[in-house]
Amino acid sequence: MNATATKPPVSPPSSSPKPQPPFLNLLLMGIVLTFILLAAALEVSEYLEWDERGTPKLAGKRQKKLEKSLRELEEAEQYALIIDVPGYYPCFSCKDSVLIFLYTGEIWRYGSTVKQENGRYRNSLRGKNMTYQTQFVGNIFECKKQELLKIYNYPVLPENLKRKIPLIRPPGNKIDQ
Amino acid sequence: MQLLEQQVDEFWFSSITWHEVSEQVNYPNLNLIRQTINAKLSLSNYGTGVKEIGFIFVAALPNNSIHGETLRFYKAKKEVFIQKKLPYELVEAYEAPQVLHLMAQTYLQSLRELVAKRKIEDFDGARLMADVQALFAEQGWLTPVQSAQATPA
């Protein structure tokens, strides 16, 4: 006689968590919500403040940053990078070459700046045998205007006209502005 | 922006100038100082702590707030970088030979500051300063020059 033994069905262990008291869920949600609101308020206080009458105003830090940025736009300058030592220099406006021979006193690039970014001039001038010549000071709009005039008028400069193929703009200027 | 690195001297020089005084500072003074120092001195004689000294003379208008003064040592690259102002009124009034003396004195003074303010490992800054001073004196750059123009009050 064949006897077959069948295992009694075993019910799987329950995977559902024990139900928590509703007040605990509410408490957790409350804590999370409080943190979110607190973080938002802190973030807002970075740029917004209210005076004693409840009138909103810019946060002091942002106000100072705005004033500094506006002041910088007023104190800009237009400059030229001038060659000190004759030699081959990169040319972004040459059609058939990536280098150009430049003589002492010739212009490599025109530009404008509102501030001395860390290392900017150092990187521009470092061992490059060039000097930085400030040609105009004023607000950034006036400086950009001067820069544009000089870049566009570069083709008629004697140092450019003597070339076999005159350049459209200074060798160091990739674009017109 | 990358320029050619073919002619980087151990002692490199540049300038930031208002266009009205560029001639006095740059031609021929800047190149004269650069060539003289690089021809006579080598940083390797003063230890291994410094491989390059960059110097930028600033002759900007007195109200210029963009170009300040700097004296830094970049340890990783062993580079000293100095940006120093020249007194604009003097540069404007002086002729090129006098400006050269002004530049020589400014350079020496900056080296003095470097020695006093920065302790750089394996670099004999005091001896370099003494050698630069001797070199400038030999060139006659540390003695006063008579000018055809009146000296400003």
Explain what the structure shows.
- With 177 residues, chain A is α+β, with helices and mostly antiparallel strands.
- In chain A, the strands form 3 sheets. In chain A, strands 6-3-7 form a 3-stranded antiparallel sheet. A two-stranded antiparallel sheet of chain A has the order 1-2. In chain A, strands 4-5 form a two-stranded antiparallel sheet.
- In chain A, strand 1 and strand 2 form a beta hairpin.
- In chain A, 36% of the residues lie in helices and 21% in strands.
- With 153 residues, chain B is α/β, with parallel strands linked by helices.
- Chain B is built from 4 helices and 4 strands.
- Chain B has a 4-stranded mixed sheet, covered by helices on one side.
- In chain B, strand 3 (70-74) and strand 4 form a beta hairpin.
- The longest helix of chain B has 22 residues, at 96-117.
- Classes of the chains: A alpha+beta (177), B alpha/beta (153).
- The interface between A and B is medium-sized, with 33 and 34 residues.
- Strand 7 (130-138) of chain A pairs parallel with strand 1 (11-18) of chain B.
